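Appendix B, example 12.
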Amino acid sequence: MIGIIGAMPIEVEGLKSRLQNSQTENLAGLQFSRGMLSGVECVVAHCNPGKVNAALCTQLMITHYQPRLVINSGVAGGIGAGIHIGDLVISTAVVQHDMDTSPLGDKRGYLSGIGLIEIPASEKLVQLLGRTATEVYKGAVHTGVIATGDQFICDSAKLHELGRDFGALACEMEGAAVGQVCHVNNVDFVVLRTISDNADDDAKMDYTTFAPIAAQRGIDLLCRILPELS
């Protein structure tokens, strides 16, 4: 089984509507829909925005459904001159940019307990998705670090800071929480993000306009590549 997690309805409803033989279960206030998607057994969940919501959803999914891999799919803000609205970013690693115990001597983003700043995604998944996406995705495909924090970034100075400090290509609010839970449970994961805005001063306007389009591109891509992952 493959687990798919999205933060917002626009990121998961298109997937749930395509599930065959769907069965739905509610756990801790979250809805999990299980069925066949593109011929592959999947469980799809809407976690709601933010790291705590994403972590809760991921642990529930792993505990109750035992997926062999988890994909966190959705939209994100792009970082850097080469990342444009409509592009796709595949995570090589994820970081929590708002985790900061540097006053105690740690580096910014350091995660106590697992001793990492960058949580690596499955290299095999990244390579497979990168190869397949370049053939089917209508837009540029990038691989790199995705930065997560409990903030909607719409500030050019903050945007440049994330690029400088973490080498991030995109920023969002769930991926690194999903990654951390998968890491401690020894479950492969990858984060897929279609770019809805450039996380700058125009981000709010761009997001409203382009998020539904970007989300649909991600849904279409997932449905195309799932058989490659089975």
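The chain has a mean pLDDT of 90. The two ends are 8 Å apart (CA to CA).
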